[in-house]
């Protein structure tokens, strides 16, 4: 019922509000002010109505989040025409998924707090990923597991961007260096890794390293 399947009223004026318009307003609030700022009362103010007026279209906060997430994710990027088969297609799929999280970082919190209903756009992204693996010889379970691995990696990188704090990172580095200076004999591998620049800033997209390793593993499964 959330995604445009409601029957329109047979009589009377056409409603001025729709679930889609409400979700769009809520998404705008989340983009500008963060997810915590979103409530039915806050969205209602955008339309100059009371929160009760929205319940005709959106039963509650959970359903509003479902609508917002699906709207923000949007339709999947077409990848079937990318030459080279499943691997470059899934690579582009993951990069476009990552770009979505960059545009709407609040999606992480909205989808991490509970198992939400997958809307048509989300199902479309799943369909697109599975279609890219059709004909590879991977079982249906392996295809689904690959999808979960890709989504998990993309979300992990996106969460790192959200949590990034230069001051906190500098303090962590200072405290860690102090501990290692006094107890280097207990952590020889870590001490060596730091000395060789394991934690130093480096160029390139952090998404790519994990993405390539995941796809290498998938390739090894293909007959």
Automatic annotation (TrEMBL):
Protein name: TetR family transcriptional regulator
An MF annotation (GO) of this entry: transcription cis-regulatory region binding
Domain HTH tetR-type per the UniProt entry, residue ranges: 16-76
Stored Gene3D superfamilies: Homeodomain-like, Tetracycline Repressor, domain 2
Coiled coil: none
Keywords recorded for this protein, A-Z: DNA-binding, Transcription, Transcription regulation
InterPro entries: Homeodomain-like_sf (IPR009057), HTH-type_TetR-like_transc_reg (IPR050109), HTH_TetR (IPR001647), Repressor_TetR_C (IPR004111), Tet_transcr_reg_TetR-rel_C_sf (IPR036271)
DNA-binding region location: 39-58
Database matches in PANTHER family: HTH-TYPE TRANSCRIPTIONAL REGULATOR RUTR, TRANSCRIPTIONAL REGULATORY PROTEIN
Organism: Streptomyces viridochromogenes
GO biological process: negative regulation of DNA-templated transcription
Pfam families, A to Z: TetR_C_1 (PF02909), TetR_N (PF00440)
């Amino acid at each position: 019922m959330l995604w445009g399947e409601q029957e329109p009223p047979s009589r009377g004026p056409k409603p001025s509000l729709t679930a889609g318009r409400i979700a769009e307003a809520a998404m705008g609030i989340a983009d500008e002010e963060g997810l915590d700022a979103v409530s039915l009362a806050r969205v209602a103010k955008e339309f100059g109505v009371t929160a009760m007026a929205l319940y005709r279209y959106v039963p509650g906060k959970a359903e509003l989040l479902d609508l917002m997430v699906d709207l923000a994710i949007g339709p999947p990027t077409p990848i079937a025409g990318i030459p080279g088969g499943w691997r470059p297609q899934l690579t582009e799929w993951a990069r476009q998924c990552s770009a979505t999280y960059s545009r709407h970082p609040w999606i992480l919190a909205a989808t991490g707090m509970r198992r939400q209903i997958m809307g048509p756009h989300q199902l479309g992204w799943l369909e697109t990923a599975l279609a890219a693996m059709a004909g590879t010889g991977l079982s249906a379970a392996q295809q689904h597991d690959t999808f979960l691995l890709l989504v998990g990696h993309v979300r992990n990188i996106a969460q790192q961007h959200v949590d990034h704090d230069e001051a906190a990172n500098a303090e962590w580095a200072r405290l860690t260096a102090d501990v290692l200076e006094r107890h280097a004999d207990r952590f020889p591998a870590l001490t060596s890794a730091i000395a060789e620049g394991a934690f130093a800033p480096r160029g390139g997209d952090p998404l790519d390293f994990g993405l390539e390793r995941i796809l290498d593993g998938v390739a090894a499964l293909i007959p």
